[in-house]
Amino acid sequence: MPGLREPRGAGLGFRRELVGELQAGVPDEIAFFELAPENWAGMGGRSARELRAFTERYPFACHGLSLSLGGIAPLDVALLKRIRSFMAEHGMTLYTEHLSWCGDDARLYDLLPIPLTEKAVRWTVDRIRQAQDLLGMRIAVENASTYVVPPGAEMGEAEFISAVVREADCLLHLDVNNVYVNSRNFGFDPLAFLDALPLARTAYVHVAGHYVEADGLVIDTHGAAVIDPVWSLLAAAYERIGGAVPTCLERDFNLPDLATLCAEVRQIARLQAAAPPARKAA
Q1: d(CA 234, CA 174)
Q2: Contact 131, 67 (CB under 8 A)
Q3: Are the C-beta atoms of 162 and 198 separated by less than 8 Å?
Q4: Domain containing residue 77
Q5: pTM for the full model?
Q6: What is the total count of domains within the chain?
Q7: Which residues contact 227 (CB under 8 A, 6 or more apart)?
Q8: Residue 78 domain-assigned (yes or no)
């Protein structure tokens, strides 16, 4: 069993399509990897052996896809127990999930927004506390990209996130591209949004590319290169939280070669190096 390894620096999503290139040699730019535990926990055979070869040498972060923290169906206790065992087996120390809901009687295969209400805060906080108890660790919750505001909102998104993080005593997973996407679609200032978040709780950061529809709607796809305004927003985030927070490049499809991805990972590392060494109080 590998020892515990905390993600640091700049990382890349661990994709099966990249395993061959990575087996030939992991570029120095990549300090850690990220995976979705649902896609790997309990897997055997060749895929399990390939993963073990990497987790024995590199830190990994777990980024969940299907816990549905804001959903109404009972929390998936069996999944959480499987994730806890998987993380212990591979020496993983960081688990994050989306602040959204994605299922009821079955998976909906989309990340849907949680109503921005006091009742939803209490409901989501209780589920996060339960998840943390079952995992035996604090988790980080990610600000999600959304395309509709649920009716009956009693607060803004940043206020909702802040209330959940504070009351659940959990951590923040800051997705910079999601902030940018939502700012474009809903017409708000992304820097003001950053300043309204509980940034002192930031444990992890995502940066990614997106797609712009013909009508101007911005879709968080993780299928394109990161654009300059998102890099600028990442730099602004580091000015507020420092450059020591582990940051992962998300690329889920339209995968280029490893060298192209590493150029973006290097850009993350450059921005981290240029940032203040310590986090500012939020």
Answers
A1: 10
A2: yes
A3: yes
A4: 10-274
A5: 0.95
A6: 1
A7: 209, 210
A8: yes
